[in-house]
Design brief:
mainly beta, four-stranded antiparallel sheet, disordered N terminus
Length: 364
């Protein structure tokens, strides 16, 4: 078990025992699998729509939470990945809100917040950095025990999200920033940052292809894939000039023609910070397919057609996490507040108190 340095072991075990379990009278309504913070205590679990939350107490914030791959044969279990620089992985049961397995990350590595399963569930891929050099790695882990089997270069610095493509290759968003444990989340190489999207062979780690944005101060962070193969990338601007940051694009698209950034039409400015991205299929027609990005610093949600046109926006203070399930999608602000579109259109009643932390996934 990972122990918060500010808590003694017996105190942490007592806190973990107080995890919020599902009430006996909870409904069968859909829920959101996510992480959140209440009174400085981090949790991972399920927000039950129209009911209450249930979760496992965490020593530090999680970044991504996802269900275990169905092929592993552990129904109801989920995986929580610690926020960077992350020190733990957690398997837990979403129904009882109890920890199943805590796993400490190796001393010379820290997690970068995301993980993905191999298509058949045979491996878990985690994005990590070296605590000695800041070099980026993809760790290949046993999907049940969470032990590291091997690792290979991520193809760059600051790997954030890894996406498994339909052919089994790995698509990695290397943010391009150098961080070291002694300086925390301080960015040490802003003048030399080198962000990229790398396609890696999952068996050998060989770099097959790499793409870079034309603007070297755009950090490529989060990925969302459309059924036609187009991948959207949410970006975060690192320009020294504040005006350049505010007007920087938040979205790039990667397809058979390469990587292109989607410029913002003047005078639209979205703060230069894309917190999350999701693909949302059209409810009535593929012509309505879109990519949604949370513009956290601008307090906006922004979306474009799946081809990068027709930009729209909607106010949501501190917009962060997105969750999409078919044409239904939701976004949460860090301090509360929800926007989106669901079939019931009763967000005010179902989700009045939701303010999840980083990313969310429907649990149906």
């Amino acid at each position: 078990m990972v122990i918060n340095s500010n808590l003694r072991r017996r105190d942490w075990l007592a806190l973990a025992a107080a995890s919020m379990a599902l009430p006996a009278n909870a409904t069968s309504a859909p829920g959101l699998l996510t992480s959140w913070v209440i009174d400085d205590q981090a949790w991972a679990g399920v927000w039950q729509l129209g009911s209450t939350s249930r979760g496992v107490a965490l020593p530090k914030r999680a970044h991504e939470v996802q269900m275990l791959h169905a092929a592993l044969g552990h129904p109801g279990q989920a995986l929580a990945v610690a926020r960077r620089p992350g020190e733990y992985l957690l398997r837990f049961d979403t129904r009882s809100a109890r920890a199943v397995l805590w796993h400490d990350i190796e001393d010379d590595r820290v997690l970068c917040g995301h993980a993905s399963y191999a298509l058949d569930g045979s491996a878990l891929y985690t994005t990590e950095t070296s605590t000695d050099t800041g070099a980026g790695f993809i760790a290949v882990r046993d999907p049940v025990s969470l032990e590291k089997i091997r690792e290979f270069s991520s193809g760059g610095l600051d790997p954030h999200m890894v996406l498994v493509e339909p052919d089994g290759t790995l698509l990695v968003a290397n943010g391009g920033l150098l961080n070291l444990p002694e300086t925390g989340r301080t960015k040490l190489n802003l003048k030399q940052m080198d962000s990229s999207i790398a396609r890696l062979d999952a068996a050998t780690g060989t770099l097959r292809q790499a793409w870079r944005a034309s603007d070297p101060y755009l950090s490529l962070r989060h990925l969302a894939r459309a059924p036609n193969g187009t991948v959207a990338i949410a970006m975060q601007a690192e320009h020294a000039d504040a005006a350049a940051r505010r007007s920087a694009p938040l979205l790039a698209l990667l397809d058979a023609n390469g990587l292109r950034t989607i410029a913002l039409p003047e005078p639209l400015a979205l703060g230069g910070y894309g917190g999350d991205v999701a693909f949302v299929p059209g409810r009535n027609s593929p012509a309505d397919d879109r990519f949604v990005v949370s513009a956290t610093r601008a307090g906006q949600l922004a979306w474009w057609s799946a081809q990068g046109g027709d930009p729209r926006q909607l106010a949501l203070p501190e917009a962060g996490a997105l969750a999409a399930y078919g044409p239904d999608w939701l976004a949460s602000g860090a301090q509360g507040g929800v926007r989106g579109e669901v079939a019931t259109r009763r967000l005010d009643r179902l989700l009045a108190d939701v303010h999840w932390d980083n990313h969310g996934k429907w649990l149906v």
